[in-house]
Amino acid sequence: QYVKRARWMLLRNPANVPSDQAPKLAELLEANQALMTVYVMKASLKELWQPTNPWHWRAAWRNWQAMAMSSAIEPLIRFARKLALYWKGILARMRWPMHTGQLEGINNKIKVMKRMAYGYRDSEFFFLKIKAAFPGNP
Q: Which InterPro entries does the entry link to (predicted)?
């Protein structure tokens, strides 16, 4: 019951926990070892999302995954297994940091060009127009 009331406090970043709630959080984490483990693992996973060298990320990911698997906490193990299915996509994001907003903007511009290109007989010309619109991208 106490954990349910402390849900939002547990979901906050450690730096954003108000000073009046910090003792309650410390008491809750001391009382429940599994909760403490998951809380620390959440903080270390959050550090992984900071874009660094992709190969350092891969080593840090393997380390985090090994810690999660050895924790003997079933929900954490399930989460680590599900996240492991997406490691290639996450690694690609680290190597080429493009936000979805940029991608949507590029797709929208291509759609507009496609509407304007209605009637072009040559698809090669259309692709040349797309490449000319985005000179820095291969």
A: Transpos_ISL3, Transposase_DDE
| Token digits of residue 14 | 């450690």
What is the residue whose two structure tokens read 């511009």?
109
Q: State the Cα–Cα distance between residues 19 and 137, nearest whole angstrom.
A: 47
The domain in which residue 106 lies consists of 100-133
The verdict on residue 138 lying in a domain is no
Span 92-132, pLDDT tens digits: 888 877 788 888 998 999 999 888 877 777 888 888 888 88
Neighbour-count burial for 51-85, b at 16+ CB within 10 Å, e otherwise: eeeeeebeebbeebbebbeebebeebeebbeeeee
Q: Please give the angle made by the CA atoms of 78, 72 and 49, to the nearest 5 degrees.
A: 55
- Of the two residues 107 and 3, the one the predictor is more confident about is 107
Collapse the DSSP code of 26 into the 3-class scheme (helix H, G, I; strand E, B; otherwise coil) and give the result.
helix
3-state secondary structure of 53: coil
Distance (Å, whole) CA 90 – CA 134? 25
The pTM of this model reads 0.64
80 and 113 in a common domain: no
**Count: domains in the chain:** 2
How far is it, in rounded angstroms, from Cα 59 to Cα 26? 30
